[in-house]
Each structure stands twice: as C-alpha cells, then as structure tokens.
Amino acid sequence: MKRIDILLFDDFTALDAFGPAEVLGGLEDCALSFVSLAGGEVGNHLGLRVMTEKLDPEEPRFILLVPGGFGTRPGSRDPELLGLIREAAASSEYLLSVCTGSALLAAAGLLEGLRATSNKTAFEWASGCGPAFWDRQARWVRDGRVFSSAGVSAGIDMALGFVSEIYGGEKAESIARRIEYHRNPDADRDIF
Amino acid sequence: MKRIDILLFDDFTALDAFGPAEVLGGLEDCALSFVSLAGGEVGNHLGLRVMTEKLDPEEPRFILLVPGGFGTRPGSRDPELLGLIREAAASSEYLLSVCTGSALLAAAGLLEGLRATSNKTAFEWASGCGPAFWDRQARWVRDGRVFSSAGVSAGIDMALGFVSEIYGGEKAESIARRIEYHRNPDADRDIF
C-alpha cells in the first residue's frame, strides 16, 4: 500500500484535512495516516481532538498533505515544524496543501520557483510566508509534484483533480459520485 | 452558548461529520461537542481516531447531528444506540442527519410521518430502516425540526441551508465564503 500522511497540528481546519482525506481514502492502493510533529492528540477550535502518529520524515510516502488553519500562523515561524516538513517533503512523491497549508510549504522553502495558491482571505499573509509564483485566481494549482488549493472546500476539488491527473478522470468521477460531491473541475476557475 | 452534539460511532464517514461541523462552527452562539454512546476513542476506515465525550441524552441541546457511514449498518440494529438517539432527540431543538445517518433516525422511529432523504447509493437499504416519506431526489429535506441530507457532501449544503433558514441567508453566505464553498442552494435539486 502507498502511504499518505496527513499532517495535523493544533488549530488545523477540519474540512481542509478531512475533505481531501475522504477523496484520497477512495484510492484502493493507498493507506492514510494522520500524523503530527510529536504524535498524540491534536486539537482545534471546533473542540475536535484527533489521535495522531509521530511523523517519521524519512519513511517514503506517496503523498504528504498539509492542511491550513489558524495553526499555520505559529507554524510558519516554528523551525522544528518547518524542518520536519522539509525533510518529509524529500521522501514524498507528491506534496498537497490546502488553504493556508501552502504558507507552511512556502515558509519551508518548498515552493521556490513554483506556482501555488492559497486561501483568498488570508492571501496577503500566506503569500508573504515564502517565495512562489502566487496565483490568486485559481481553485487549485499543480506545478510538478506540488498541488496547492485555495481555501478549505477547494481542497476537495484539488484532491479530485489529483486523482484525475494521476489515476484518470473515471476514478475521480467515481469518487465524486460516491461522496455525492458537485465538482468544480476547472482548476483555474473560482468564484472567490 | 447553544450546544451542538455531533454523534460519532465506529465507521462513521469523516466528511459527513466534519463538513457540517465546519459550517456550524461558524455560528458564534454555538459550541460543538463530539460525542458517542460510550465516550472515548471512535475510529473509522480511513484510520481516523477521534476522542469523544459520552453523550448525555438528557442535557438540552440546540442540535443533534447524526452522520452516516458503514457503522450505521450495525447501528441500525443496536437497541442501545437507537435508544440513546431517541432519548437525545427528545432534548434536542433540531435533529440533523447526513447520508445514512437518516437510517439511524428512521430505525429509532424519529422520522415517522416526516419527509426525509438519504444517500442515493444506499437508498433502498436506508429507506427500509424505518417509516418516513422518503424523497429520493432531494439534496436535503427539512420537515419541521428535522433536516436530513443526501450522501456525504450534501451535508455541507444542508448545514448551510439550516443556517440560512434559522440565522438568515447572509450568515449562510458569509460562512460559505469563509470556507470557499460553491453552494448548491436548492434543496430539491441534486445531480445524483
């Protein structure tokens, strides 16, 4: 099974993580893990408490997915977290970020020379976290092995876009149908 | 603060619970709790492990939200769980179900005489769990204090529909914008 690590941290946005998780959970050749810097319980402002494994940055994985949320503000200034993300990125085939998760990738220096997007409301802040060719219009952006999405729900469209590009459009349609999701299939078009 | 209890059980569908949770988390006068029959850790097929409180059925609450998932199959035959839902429903102002969560409400006898919907793929099974006027076409249905949605992602539209009816359209729009969600605002229209 191919490993998909979903990186959680205190004050992550639930839908950023669990929207794409629901989509990627439809890939029969993959196994998801919910991971964090230290392992153990991670919480957020909804009162949600999720148990996580400690992320082993050296373990090869198919996807590292980084959600956004208020926790990316302290996260973007946390050298330990950024170092872990950088190290884990080196052993990941694909990097996916949702919402302000791209601020963490940028702060870790992982978006340099690449096109990327982020949450529209927090765009100024996120795009100031590190170098990238920031695209404010996109629903999501793929540049090479890095997929980044706009805010929260856009992560679902990005994850379906990822499935479509890597596994084919039929697989993406079948997952969208299973979760009864009305797709926004155009990466470049967003109403926000 | 008004209490919103999100009832989790083993093999619940993550997006059924956390889509609406993200929406309802935008209501400043409400506090969310993730609860279960016994309290403690609840898991699902994605490898997700969530900590829950034990649901106190007698505590008055604003909303009881019941997600769907594979766990509704054993759940629909579990007299202890159904009794708890029935008891908790009596002290809830509103009942919301997502996907096959409506099978649990039906099996608990809570949909008798009411219009309701459920997941399209599991419709035959869900609608066989108990009496209701089952609507196969809807994205979501409101009948009095009970809101039920179609599969998985439809819960997000239903939660926004709930906010729109109870708090007004502007509040629903503001939450949809914050989570950058392209709404399906018509309860009666679904492509699935």
Describe the structure.
The structure is a homodimer of 192-residue chains. Chain A has helices at 14-24, 72-75, 79-90, 101-107, 123-127, 154-167, 169-178; strands at 2-7, 30-36, 40-43, 49-54, 61-66, 92-97, 115-116, 133-134, 140-143, 146-149. In chain A, 33% of the residues lie in helices and 24% in strands. Chain A contains 7 helices and 10 strands. With 192 residues, chain A is of the alpha/beta class. An 8-stranded mixed β-sheet of chain A has the order 3-4-2-1-5-6-10-9, with helices on both faces. Chain A has a two-stranded parallel ribbon with strand order 7-8. The first copy, chain A, has one domain: 3-Layer(aba) Sandwich (Rossmann fold). The radius of gyration of chain A is 15 Å and the shape is globular. The interface between A and B is large, with 40 and 40 residues.
Please give a quick description of this structure:
The structure is a homodimer of 192-residue chains. Chain A is of the alpha/beta class and 192 residues long. Chain A has 7 helices and 10 strands.
